[in-house]
Design brief:
Blueprint lengths: L2 H6 L11 H13 L8 H16 L3 H12 L9 H14 L4 H8 L6 H16 L16 H8 L2 H13 L5 H10 L5 H8 L10 H7 L3
Helix pairs in contact: 2-3, 2-7, 3-4, 3-5, 4-5, 5-6, 9-10, 9-12, 10-11
């Protein structure tokens, strides 16, 4: 699938061995940036639970709300916008990677869909590496994590990454690139990702996760 083909479709490139946490953070990032999603109180409640679980690693509350999410789909006209909103909430609890696709289907025909497709692709690129250009999933560890830990994870780099992760303000990504480079990092994928002026960064960013040792 090319980027142009994806932008004309409602599909997402296939996930490649993503953990439940990473899938969840991708879906949460998409939902937070979809203005229309703010009107769905159940979706917002579910999103908050999923984000909490992604951070704690405890998914019991998400699993417990899944039956209600399934029940909410009953009696709704199949194929309607409302149906896809309900399915998005259900997928968020069970297969989070698919939730953004259902958001796009719910909004099909609106002026915002093309913008959201492009935004979702940027978010996916931040979290997994560009899935459409060369097909390389950066979460397949192009650099051994042990090497990053031993050579590049200086106290400065880790502090910068942790501050961005906690604050959700990723404006210091270029400074992280400088810190990693000062520590000996010469990997273009990592440095270019940090310095990409057009990039979008969120929790789950593959470089920040790499520095912090998150999976």
């Amino acid at each position: 699938m090319t980027e142009a083909e994806w932008l004309r479709s409602m599909a997402l490139p296939p996930a490649r061995r993503l953990t439940r946490r990473v899938e969840a953070l991708f879906a949460v990032a998409c939902i937070h940036r979809t203005t229309q999603a703010k009107a769905d109180s159940f979706l917002q409640k579910t999103t908050a639970l999923v984000e909490e679980a992604a951070e704690s690693g405890i998914w019991s509350k998400v699993d417990a709300i899944a039956p209600q999410a399934a029940s909410n789909c009953v009696g709704v006209e199949l194929g309607s916008g409302l149906h896809f909103w309900k399915i998005a909430a259900l997928r968020l609890t069970t297969a989070a990677y698919q939730a953004p696709m259902h958001l796009l289907k719910a909004l099909e025909g609106s002026d915002s869909v093309i913008h959201l497709r492009r935004l979702y692709l940027k978010l996916l690129t931040d979290i997994t590496g560009n899935p459409l250009r060369g097909g390389s999933d950066r979460r397949k560890k192009p650099i051994p994590l042990t090497e990053v830990q031993s050579m590049w994870r200086t106290s400065t780099a880790v502090a910068l990454a942790q501050q961005m992760y906690d604050s959700r303000d990723f404006s210091t990504m270029p400074i992280l690139a400088d810190a990693l480079q000062d520590a000996g990092c010469d990997n273009d994928d990592i440095l270019n990702h940090c310095r990409d002026a057009n990039g979008v960064h969120v929790r789950g960013c593959w470089v920040v996760d790499l520095v912090l040792g998150k999976t």
